[in-house]
Amino acid sequence: MAEHTDHHLDDRMDDRMDERLRTHAARWREDLPEVAPFSPRAPRRAGVVAAAAAAAVLVVVGAGVVLRSGTDRADAPPADRTSPSPAPRVVPWADLPPTHPTLPTTPAPACGPGDVAAGRPRTEGAAGTEYLTVDLRLTGDAPCWVSQDPAVTFLSAGEPLDLRVTKNQPDATPGTRVLVDGSHPATLTIGWAVSHSCPAVDNDEIRVTLGPNDVPLSLPGFGLSSCNPGEERSLPFVSPLQSAASPGAGSTSPWREVEVAGDLDLAAGVDEDVTFDVTLTSRVDLPLAACPDYVMTAGSHGGTYGLNCADVPYQDDAGDAYLPADTPVTFQMRVDGFDRAAAGKVVWRLDVRGTTALHGQLTVGDVELGTVTGTVTVVGGPAGTPDRVVTAGRVTATGPSGTDQSAIGPDGTYTLHLPPGAYDLEATPLAPLRGIVCPDRVGVTGGATVTADITCSID
Amino acid sequence: MARTADDDFAAWVGPHLPALHRYAARQVGAADADDVLQDALARAWRRRSTYDEARGAPLPWLVAIVRDRARRHRTRRREHLSLVDADRAVAPADADPDLERAIAMLPARQREAVDLYYFVDLDVASVAAVMGCAPGTVRATLHQARTSLRTLLGDDDG
Asked: What are the mean pLDDT values of chain B's consecutive 10-residue runs (158 residues total)?
């Protein structure tokens, strides 16, 4: 009886929230201006093809006349409310073996002047060396590549200085391509022991030229260097450009244009089959002749399987399935019941190597996750160097449920949610401390938070 | 006068303009909705040859384009303005600001369902078509959203 009463109470409160939403939304719609009569100068971006923009202007103006002639909203065209389209069917799950496909790629052009711009430079000191790091971001719509080894010149009052800039990794292959796309900037790091360089030299600008098309960039200099008695001139150095977008590749993949959505943070009981939906939306028509695999892992369990591309309801002229541009396609996914030995965190990943990371996770079994949080700090270096936090990188935990990772935030902190057990932690900072690995170990208890501050020691 | 491809496109997209405009306003705020809508229509016009009528009504396709252009608009705005308020400036002065703040805190899929059903004023079947799921999933998502909103607003005590 009490449960029955609770249901009625819940229904009443749900109705009240429904009414509150309807009332607020109705006011919001009333206060919303009507679709404006667009003028030909309305497009603000030069990139819009003139003919297309003009056509769109015509379209909207024409439609605006229709709307304004029916100022009573009840007279507005009812198509949205009364002509629903049938919901597209969900692509059913099928137990398919992996195909390990070679997914299509398209060569990207080399970046030209104006395709890439420098973001806000960041400075950081470590072991007596000052590092200037800057993200080179794509400003155009299409991905492009630059050579990994830029030319760098220091200037003072516009005049080049006689200051040789060395390469931090002389073994790096010259001309290696680094792809820059809308989601992945290339990162440039320039270092200099600026406090230990004799004679002192002033510099107010660093000029960077990105190959192969000589893309010019201008960065602030390090300022006046310091010279202590007995010290010799130290030379600035530049690291190879780094990018998370297919390092070393000068090509792009249409899978970069795919967005994934779905409520993947699910929970399930031991031995319980779980189904969930994953919706893929591509911004371009994407052939599925090469169908990607997906991976499910729970600790040491799991495997690679084939996505059910054959049942995608859209086919091209050749009869091959494809993801139509801007159209969500939902795939049903299924996890056969994991036994208690595998209970924990299941990681799901669509295997499109080197491209968009599509992944999710669900918790199987009555497992309560614990939280590990802490700060990654660097200690050591020349005498007097204070301890400082690591501002970029990742922390990897390896334990009974497999591996999990967390990014290190700008304040040096990280957080992981893990099934109970003992884990090896490993902090791997990015530039300027790239290459340093900082280990630690932690025990995780379900429902509890444990602090694990990780220290990176350098000479 | 001869009927042109532009006329056909206008007739095709016209019935959906009010909904698309409301959706753009929910995504980027009323002030920027016109720009985003025009950008989306230009893109739809360029890509109209790729639309397959076998997919059903065009609204889900058009909404997806508005969503994409709104996302790009927000990205550009973040890049160009350092002090942009991330809140969507959609609430009129006499509206329910607590409710708007709570809606902004909903998980993305719940917020999308609330925006499409209550604010854009689509029916459940159309929301399902836009979100690429079954109508029952939309109803469940809306119920979850209302429950979340009650919790966020402290209305759980009845």
From this structure: 60 86 91 86 76 74 84 62 37 69 87 93 88 83 90 70
A378's tokens: 């660097």
DSSP B87: S
Predicted TM-score (pTM) of the model is 0.41
Least Cα distance to A425 among A375, A386, A359 occurs for A375
Q: Tokens 């107010």 — which residue?
A: A204
**DSSP assignment, residue B119?**
I
Helix axes A2-31, B135-152, angle to 10 degrees: 90
The pLDDT tens digits for A189-248 are 898 888 777 888 888 899 999 989 999 999 999 888 888 777 787 889 888 887 765 544
Cβ of A84 within 8 Å of Cβ of B129? The answer is yes
Residue with tokens 């084939």: A306
**Whole-angstrom Cα distance, residue A334 to residue A279?**
14
Q: Which two tokens stand for residue A426?
A: 């490993």
CB nearest B114 (choices: A21, A63, A86): A21
Sign of CA dihedral A308, A313, A319, A322: negative
Provide the 10 A C-beta neighbour count for residue A255: 22
Using alpha carbons only, give the angle A36, A80, A14 rounded to the nearest 5 degrees: 105
First to last CA, chain A: 71
Distance CA A100, CA A290 (A): 9
Q: Do B109 and A261 touch (CB under 8 A)?
A: yes
Q: Is the pLDDT of residue A72 over 60?
A: no
Q: Coil, helix or strand for A360?
A: strand
Query: Are B14 and A63 in contact (CB < 8 Å)?
Result: yes
Facing residue for A35 by CB, picked from B21, B55, B114: B21
Q: Compute φ and ψ for A67, nearest 5 degrees.
A: -70, -45
CB contact under 8 A, B150 and A17: yes
pLDDT score at A187: 86
Tokens of A421: 């057990």
A-chain CB neighbours of B38 within 8 Å are: 38, 42-43, 53, 56-57, 60
Cis-peptide into A199, omega within 30 deg:
yes
Q: A112, A249, A122, A248: which is closest to A188 by C-alpha?
A: A122
User: How far apart (Å, rounded) are the C-alpha atoms in residues A291 and A352?
Assistant: 10
**Cβ atoms within 10 A of the Cβ of A95, count?**
9
Give A352→chain B minimum CA distance, Å. Answer: 22
The answer to whether A91 and A313 are in contact (CB under 8 A) is yes
Q: Which member of B38, B99, B137 has the closest CB to residue A60?
A: B38
The nearest CA of chain B is from the CA of A285 a distance in Å of 8
In this structure, how many other beta carbons lie within 10 angstroms of the beta carbon of residue A199? Answer: 9
Q: How far apart are the first and last CA of chain B?
A: 63
Going by their DSSP bridges, the two strands A274-282 and A329-335 should be labelled as antiparallel
The B residues from 55 to 94 touching A (CB cutoff 8 Å) are 55-57, 59-61, 64-65, 68, 79, 90-92, 94
Question: Three-state DSSP class for A310?
Answer: helix
ipTM above 0.85, yes or no: yes
**How far apart (Å, rounded) are the C-alpha atoms in residues A255 and A143?**
13
**Chain-centroid distance, C-alpha B65:** 10
